[in-house]
Amino acid sequence: MPHLFESKDSFKENFKEAVSDAYGRDFEDTYPEERYIVLGNMIRDFAGEHWRETKNAIKKTESKQLYYFSMEFLMGRLMTSNLMNLNIYDVVKDGLKDLGMDINDMENIESDAGLGNGGLGRLAACFMDSLASLDLAGHGNCIRYRYGLFKQKIENNQQIELPDCWLKNGNVWEVWKPQHAVKVKFGGYVDGYMDGYGKFHAQHHPDFVVRAVPYDEPIVGYHTTTTNTLRLWDAEVDEDSVNSGGLNEYLNQVTAITANVYPDDSTIEGKRLRLTQEYFFVCAGIDQIIRSHLRVYPSLDNLGDKVAIQLNDTHPVLVIPELMRVLLDDYFYDWDDAWNIVTKTVAYTNHTVMAEALEKWPQDMVRSLLPRLYMIIEEINRRFKYDVDHRGLCGIFNNVSILKEGQVHMANLAVVGSHSVNGVAKLHSEILVNDVFKDFVTIYPNKFNNKTNGITHRRWLLFSNPQLTKLLEETIGDEFKTNPEKLEDLMAHVEDEALQTKFMDVKLERKKILAAYVKENLGIDIDVNSIFDCQAKRLHAYKRQLLNIFHVMYLYLRMKQDPSFRIYPRTFFYSAKAAASYDLAKEIIKLINMVANVVNNDPEISKYMKVVFIPNYSVSIAEILLNAADVSEQISTAGKEASGTGNMKYMMNGAITLGTLDGANVEIVERVGYENAEIFGLHVEDINELRHENSYNAWNLYNSSYNIRMVIDSLKNCTWSNDPNEFKLINNDLMMRNDEFFVLADFEAYVYAQEKVQARYMDKSRWAKTMLINIAKSGYFSSDRTISEYAKEIWDLKPLSFEK
Ligand code: 26V
């Protein structure tokens, strides 16, 4: 059947008419925003046909489906990705051109959907793209936050947080489904009674009820029919219930639930709201799964055969007691049968070993907000204890208990209530097994596994770097587009000097694009022939942006002191948001910006280096920053970065990893070889030993190293700021609190590694070869590989079949 994107002409004709009809004006008189909305709606409706076919295929073939429960989905923009995946990009681009429009202008009208903090949310988005592209039925379940995390602005060198109004022009991809609304109940009390058969029944009398209303977005696979659903729940008032505080308070409470993405390390006041959010989208998501299951199957007995639920960290772990509640209270299952269904269905991914990020909730809070779930959690814990005791392991119970010291330990609940627990890189999974969940391994030796993260090569290579994609196609054909492991074919060409030159030209072109953005938005001129050295990620002490800026400070101070010491020109790029309440992280942002002012305005030194802080790090910024990089800074304290995924995006675009042996860096070097990365610093074992023996002393390093002293002293001697107290938190963190993340311990090794990076760059042919090897070996880090492993080893999910 011909469709309206069949040809340029049919697209043009339909588009013009649709715009004109929608706004009641001649096409020529409509605004770009109006055209954007109509174009978006046309694309979404076009995807609707495949959406329907996918739903029908699932029903007809009784296929198993995955639901990825995540509090965060950092989708970024979808127009390019949808057009490319639907294979209609060129038709639309050419058609718009005929109409005097530039497709880039349309793409730029879209706001980033920034519904997340960082890596965890972006991983969920990459997974959505891979699931659909691999023909797997896998859907996302999240909250429709009215505002994204925040928009970062730098004023007086400091971060300020502005609201991120991503919905201000609407969201063209979503479909509102009020008919699928679900009531979510909070607070109140629970009544229990025995029926005639001696069976206990619970009745929840809530004091706060909200209506969860879904907005669905189609998730389009790359050149396939499969179109999955990302379901975002909004909270609306329930017409029949007003809480005890009166109408106004009720309205405010409902509005608050979906107002904002929670920053990862915020204050205590927000905690109850965060728990409310967690239950809100869990309860709604489970209700929908149960209802759609029962539309096809007679009972929930086979739920575990037809549904897999993956918990993206512990944030959605209430899935476990909630699914128990539904099975026990609404469908009258016995405990053991219900428990078997739940554990068969649910799997959990851990994304951090940072103790402060492992979720715990006060028992009182859970009991008062979710009284029935609390009863179930108590019972899960009681039976778990019984089981552990009976296996003669009572000595370890306190370590693994879900309830202890007045708190509910969500990670422990996740491990007990699921059939699979995975880490996100080999090293991280080892740390989980040997350390964080050690005692659980004794109880459940077969539950633990690793699934090394990945990134969608479609967004991060094909769509955001068309110049490199074209060169790769010319060199190795286009198989790598659907089978990224085929990038390995590039290995046969890495010595080819003509290719090396062409590749360096592509890199230069990407550097020019980034330089133009920097000039336009920040007014800074940068040398596109300098080494582009990039660190972009959330700002956190363990990620050690501080180590990076200390190196910059050291170079500056040395060049000032010694006119014979000069470096090969470099541009240091940073991009990072700090949680609004994280004072140390904010002070590091200030330091970077104040160092940038001094360095960039020094007429002598700025010939050799520039420092650029790009505000508001987001998916769209990443799309122009990472592929322009020469050096990828992955310098976390060993053992702290679970995986990292930015590291993979840089690698796929050729940058060389300058990193510690942490997270997925380990697997990157394993593939490219030590000669094609620059690895430095303490290993996990070294750090464990220093901690264990309590033998690390930051003052010893300060006293024994001239360079360290020079850098630390410069924080207080008015080199970067007129106020000697400006960087007090940083100074205290290192010198008074003994440098928790071993910044000073790795400083000299880092400086040396940076010298080696510069030496490598002097040999252009070898440098180009190294970059090409990085690209060639990056196929493994496609999220298609990651998702295939989840599908096979955890979900038992097979590709959909669309035979008529
Ligand atoms: C923690 C918390 C704690 C409670 C409040 C809300 C909240 C939100 C986020 C987080 C952090 C979760 C951990 C996380 O983002 N981990 C990152 O996951 C990436 C994907 O697996 C991985 O590449 C990064 O190394 C890891 O830091």
TrEMBL record:
Its EC number is 2.4.1.1. Allosteric enzyme that catalyzes the rate-limiting step in glycogen catabolism, the phosphorolytic cleavage of glycogen to produce glucose-1-phosphate, and plays a central role in maintaining cellular and organismal glucose homeostasis. Phosphorylase is an important allosteric enzyme in carbohydrate metabolism. Enzymes from different sources differ in their regulatory mechanisms and in their natural substrates. However, all known phosphorylases share catalytic and structural properties. PANTHER family: GLYCOGEN PHOSPHORYLASE, GLYCOGEN PHOSPHORYLASE, LIVER FORM. Belongs to the glycogen phosphorylase family. GO terms for biological process: glycogen catabolic process. The modification N6-(pyridoxal phosphate)lysine is found at K649. Keywords: Allosteric enzyme, Carbohydrate metabolism, Glycosyltransferase, Pyridoxal phosphate, Transferase. Its cofactor is pyridoxal 5'-phosphate. One of its GO terms (molecular function) is glycogen phosphorylase activity. GO terms for cellular component: cytoplasm. This is Alpha-1,4 glucan phosphorylase. It comes from the Bacteria. It catalyses: [(1->4)-alpha-D-glucosyl](n) + phosphate = [(1->4)-alpha-D-glucosyl](n-1) + alpha-D-glucose 1-phosphate.
